[in-house]
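Notes continue from the previous slide.

Worked example: a multi-chain complex. Inputs as given:
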Amino acid sequence: MRLKHILTTQQFSDKKTLEELFKLANKFEIWDKKRKIPQFLKGMISASVFYEPSTRTRFSFESAMLKLGGEVLTTENAGHFSSAIKGESLEDSIRIIGGYCDAIVIRHYEVGAAERAAKVSLVPIINAGDGAGEHPTQALLDIYTIWKEVGRIDGLKIAMLGDLLHGRTIHSLIHLLPLFKNIEIFLVSPKELKIPQEYKSFLRERNSRNAAAFLEFPSLAPNKSKLSPAGSLGNIKFTETEDINRVLPQIDVLYTTRIQKERFKSLKTYERVKNSFVIDEKSLKLLPKKSIIMHPLPRVSEINPIVDNDQRAAYFRQAKNGLYIRMALLKMLLA
Amino acid sequence: MRLKHILTTQQFSDKKTLEELFKLANKFEIWDKKRKIPQFLKGMISASVFYEPSTRTRFSFESAMLKLGGEVLTTENAGHFSSAIKGESLEDSIRIIGGYCDAIVIRHYEVGAAERAAKVSLVPIINAGDGAGEHPTQALLDIYTIWKEVGRIDGLKIAMLGDLLHGRTIHSLIHLLPLFKNIEIFLVSPKELKIPQEYKSFLRERNSRNAAAFLEFPSLAPNKSKLSPAGSLGNIKFTETEDINRVLPQIDVLYTTRIQKERFKSLKTYERVKNSFVIDEKSLKLLPKKSIIMHPLPRVSEINPIVDNDQRAAYFRQAKNGLYIRMALLKMLLA
Amino acid sequence: MRLKHILTTQQFSDKKTLEELFKLANKFEIWDKKRKIPQFLKGMISASVFYEPSTRTRFSFESAMLKLGGEVLTTENAGHFSSAIKGESLEDSIRIIGGYCDAIVIRHYEVGAAERAAKVSLVPIINAGDGAGEHPTQALLDIYTIWKEVGRIDGLKIAMLGDLLHGRTIHSLIHLLPLFKNIEIFLVSPKELKIPQEYKSFLRERNSRNAAAFLEFPSLAPNKSKLSPAGSLGNIKFTETEDINRVLPQIDVLYTTRIQKERFKSLKTYERVKNSFVIDEKSLKLLPKKSIIMHPLPRVSEINPIVDNDQRAAYFRQAKNGLYIRMALLKMLLA
C-alpha cells in the first residue's frame, strides 16, 4: 500500500495494510538488535513541528528517522516560537517548512490540524496527535503490541480501564478492533468516565455488518464521519462494568489509562475513583498468566510500580514498539 | 570571493560576488532536485544560537547544513536558556560555543550583536537577523528570487508595498538594487509608514555617482555609516505614492510587506490602512502577466490566500530560495 | 577500565583510569585538528535530557557525539515539556527514553537524580550536573586542563578563589587532587564563603592515609558517604586565607569561581567582596609566568576581560577541553 500522509487511524481500516505494517515493524526490531538497519532514508530530513510539547513522541519519531539514516529539524514549541504568534496561518507555516524537509511530523492542540496541514503540504504529513482528535501512530503501536505480545488478535478478550470518556487511545483502538474476528471488549470505568454513546453504536453497527465489506477503504473526504463504516470481519461483543476484579480473570489484554484529576467536579469522587482503579499485586493474582498489561503512558498512580517487574507488564515494551512502528511508517511513506 | 563572516548586506555590494552566489544557489537547487548534493560539509557542525525565536529561519539554515552533509547544534531560546541569565557576555558565550562547532548562526534582538560576535569568534559568524539591524541572508534570497524568477535585475520596475518605515527587508533590498542598471522603484505606503529620509538620500546619491565605483568594496570598520557608499552601475529612480492601483500595471516585481497593528497609535487608522493595501483578485487583474509577487513572510491579511494559486505568487518559492542561498553561503564560508 | 554509567567523580578516584582518560582525550584533540576523527559511534544516538537549561554543557556533549559519528536527540527543558508535568516519575521517563537511544545525558535540579536514573536505565547514564550534587565531567575536564597545560599534577601549588562554600567544581577538584603527590592548596575566599568543614576533614584524612590504598576503587553503594576514602599517593597540604595577593606569586594554578550576589544577606558585603576578588592586570603581574588561570565559566566580573589576552588565561581552552573529555568518555562508555 502506498501512503501519502498519515492522518487518521481510519487509513489503516484494512487488515492487510496493518499486517504489512506489523511485519515491517518487526523486521526493524530485528535489524535494530543486530545494529544493521538498512539506511532507507539516507539524505532525507523530517521536521518535528510540535505546537504542544510531547518529548516522548518527538524522541520516538526522531530516533526512528535517525536510525533509518535520515536527519531531523525540530521545534518543541512551535506555537510560541514560530511566526504563529505574528498571526501566520498553520497552512502558510506548513507550506514553507515543507520546502526545507521531506516529511513533517506535526503535533497540534486543535482537532483537524493535521488534515488542514496535509491539504497544502508539499511533503507527507504525519499526525503525531491533534488535540482531542487523532493520534494514529499511538493506535497502531497499541494494536501492534497486542499482535506481537499475544501472537494474535482474533478471538481476544480485552479490558479497557480508566477514563473511557476522554481516552483518545481507547477510542482509536475501538476503531481498529472490529477488523479482527470474535473480539470481546470489557469497558471498565467509573460511571463519570463511561465511553461516549457513539463508540457503542459503532461497535453495534460493526457487529451487524457483513464480512463482504472487509477490503473497503474509507474515503478521506473532509466531511466524513469520524466513525464512517470500515471493513469488518466478524462479530465483536462488548460489556460495560465498574467492577474490574470480576473482569481481570477473564482477559488476555488489560489496557489501562490515566484518570486525570481535572476531569472531576468533586475532589471526593476523584479520590474514590482513583483508588478503586489501581492495578497492583492483588490485580496480578487475578490476571491470567499469559495476559498482558498495557498503558499508553505516562502513568501516575493507576499502576503500582511493583507491577513493573512482572513479565505481564508490557507498557515499556509497548513504548519501545512505537519506535519500530514509526520506522515502518516512515519507510512506507518516504522510501 | 573568500568570505570570513556574513554580517551585513554591504559585504555583497559587488555585482560579481552576487552573481557567483546566485549561480551556486542555482546549482544547489538542481542538485537537490536530483537528490545528488555534493556533501561539501561532511564532518562539519553549525550551531544555531537564537536569542529570539525564528523557527523558519532556523530550519532553513539547519536544512542547508544537513543537506550539505553537516550536522547541527541548536538552541531556540539562547537568551533564557544559556548562561546569559547568569550575566555572561555575548562575547564569552560565542568564544566558548565556537570551540564546539565550525560556524555559528546567530539571531539576536540587539543591533550589532552579530558584529560583536564576529570580533571574538574562532569560527565564521552568520547573522540571521540582529534586531532592527541587518538580516543579510534574507536580502540575498530576495534579490536572488528576482534574478531567478524574472531572469534579470537590470531595467526592472519594482514596487515596494506596506510598512516601508520599519520593513527591514525593504531597507536591505534598497541597499542592493543600485548595483544594477536602470532600476525604477515605486515606494507605496500609507503616509504613516513612509520610508525614512535616509534611504531616499541614499538612492539620490547612488543615482548621481559614477559607474567607476563599481568594484569598490565597502570597508567593514565598526563606525561605518549604515549607508556608506557602495558600487553602483547606473541610474536608479524612485517615486513615493499611496496609490497602489496606479502602480500595479507598470511593474515587474511587487514586494509586499506586513503592516503591523502595533505600529499605529489609532486603531481607526490601522483599519483603514490595512484594507487599502491588500493584494487580492482585483490586484491580479491589474498586474502584468509576467510580473511576480513577493513577500518576506509571515503574511497576515495583506495578501488574500486566493492569490496563492496564481503563478505570479512567488512568495513560497522565495522562502524556498532561502534554502539554496544559505547552502551557497555555507559552502562559500566553510568548504 | 569498563564504565557503565558516569555518575560521580568518585568513579575516577584511581590515577590509572584518569590517565587513560587524559590520553584518549588528547588523541581526540589531535584527530580533531587533523579533521580525522575515527567514527567510533556511527549508528549510535545519545539523548540530551535537560531538566534545567545549560546550553554550553549540552552543546559540548552533543558536539562530542556528532564528531564521533553519532546522532543526538535533544530537549532543553525536559521539566516543562515532557510528561513530567503530568506527574510521570523520572524513572518512567528514563526507561522510556532509553528505548530510543544508546545513552542518556541528564541534567537535573535534584541531587541524586542521575543515580536514580541509572538504577532503572536500559542504557548508560551520564550525569551532566544534578543540582548541588555532582558534575563529574566538569571535574574531569578541570583536572585534565591542569595536566595538559602544566604538563603534570604532582607537586603543584593550586589556589582556589572565590565562593568555596557553594562552588561545586571546587569541591569535586578537591576530591580528585589527593590522587596526586605533594599537592599544596590555597583556599582563598571571603570569610562568608569559606569551604565547608567536611572538605577540610577530607583533606586532613587523605594526608594521613597510606599510599597502599592507591588502587582501591570506591564502592558505589547508594548510602556511601560523599567523601568516602579513595586512593591517595601522598601528602596534601592546604591553607585558608583571604589574601589573594600574598598567594598569587607562589602558585602554578589559579582556579577562580564566580561569586554570586544572591549568596549574600547584605548587599554591602557583596560589593566589598566582589571587588576584592577580581583578577586583573595587577594580578597578572603577581602571578608566575608559567602559571595558568582557570575558571569553570560563566564568569561575570571576577576576571577582567583584559586578562583574556594573556597566555596564562586558560579558561577558554579549559571549556574546549570539555569537548575532548566528553568524546573520550562517550567512547569509553559506548564503543
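Summary box: Chain C has a mean pLDDT of 89. Chain C is about 40% helix and 15% strand.
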